[in-house]
Structure formats: C-alpha cells, structure tokens
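Hello,

Following up on my earlier ticket. Below are the two sequence lines again, exactly as submitted.
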Amino acid sequence: MEILYFEGCPNHHPALALVERLSRELGIEPELRLVNVPDQVAAQRMRFLGSPTIRVGGVDVDPRAEERADYALSCRVFRTTDGIVGQPDEQWVREALLREAGTAV
Amino acid sequence: MSGSAAVLAGGHLRVRLPQLRYRGQRGGLRGDVLFGIGSGCYAEARSLATFARTHPQAEVVGVDIQDSKEGARAFYRRFGWRHPSIVDSKDVIAARFGLQGLPATLFLDREHRVVARILGETDLAGFTAGYRRALT
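Thanks for your patience. The regenerated structure is below:
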C-alpha cells in the first residue's frame, strides 16, 4: 500500500491517519509505504494525480482515477458524497483494504 | 511544491459564469483567467500578481475553494490582490469545471470557453502561455 504525496501537502498526514485507523478497525496490517513526489517530472513518471494519492495493490482507491491522465504536482480533490474534499472517501479506502486483504489470504 | 506544470488543452467545455457580474466588469472580454485558490498555492501567487500587472487587459478572477471568507481575505491582503473573487462554498464552480486538484488555473476565451488549463503550481511563463492560447 502506498500514499503518494509532495512535501508541504496539508492533506497527506490526515490520509495516513485515515489509513491507519481503518486498518486498525479492520484488523489488518498493510505494508505501508510513503512516497514523496519531488517534482513535476516525477509526477508524470509516477502517474501522480495529486496529493494525497492512496494506492492499494498498485490501484488507486478512487474508482474514477482510471479515467484521468492529468498528472501534476497538486493538492488532489476528491468528489465524494460529502462534496469536494481533500481526502478520499472512507468507503473507497475500506473496500480497497478489504480487497487486498482478501487477495493476500 | 516545485516545478512548473504544463499548459493542457482545455477541450470544448463551455461555461456560463453568472457569478462574474462583479463590480468593474468590462464588456468585450479578450480573455479571462480563472484562478482556483487552495492551500499550497502561495508560491504562485506572486507570479500571478506579476502576470496581472503586466497584462492589464486580462480579467483575473479568484475562486475560493475549500477556504473560509476570512482565510481568503487574509490571502488577498497578504498578496495585495485587487481582483474580484468568488467564494465557491458549495463547490458549484469546482464541479462545473471538473476540478481535480488545487491550485488550478483555467483560461477562458471571450466566449467563456475553457481553452487551456494548468493543474498544479505554475509560474509567470505558465500564466503567459495559457493566456496566449486564450487570445488565439
């Protein structure tokens, strides 16, 4: 599991806290890697859709991420049932963690 | 953040912006710059101020997203912002433009069609390149 971010992003710490809380609730211990995206070139190479980007098993937790190719060093916003927010929907992360845990079994 | 984001094609999205009936609006817009403001975009604020000063014919409009009025005003004071701004508290503009991240800069032609956009931090060269595209 990876959280991609850039230095100075105000949203990656809350993203990390979200992943840690959900992991605890689900009783799983994903191998978590924080990946700093340093510049625009790296953003393109790493297909970075903004900070925070959470990938589980290499797949973005946002179900609409596949439709996008606007890789950039930006603060990512997510369209959720709560509107446009700086964190992915909790349910997306939960489902991704469960999917990955199921695959690993 | 570091580095300058590329100017992307705007596609054929066309928007109506009734919110742009702000004080001092001029007729016959030559090109608009719509600037989405969010946390983390302080680094490009000075470049935008320079762009606005050197391109007085451009309409520069701020859009406050994920921010409070007080926070936005503090930002404007800090950077001497003199341009109109829109508080998008219900994410109407963000949704209409399909905003995916902040900061974002959208360049609109006189018909208010999005002709270019920059996602992520940019600089004076980026603002100028996008604006040139709006003029053609």
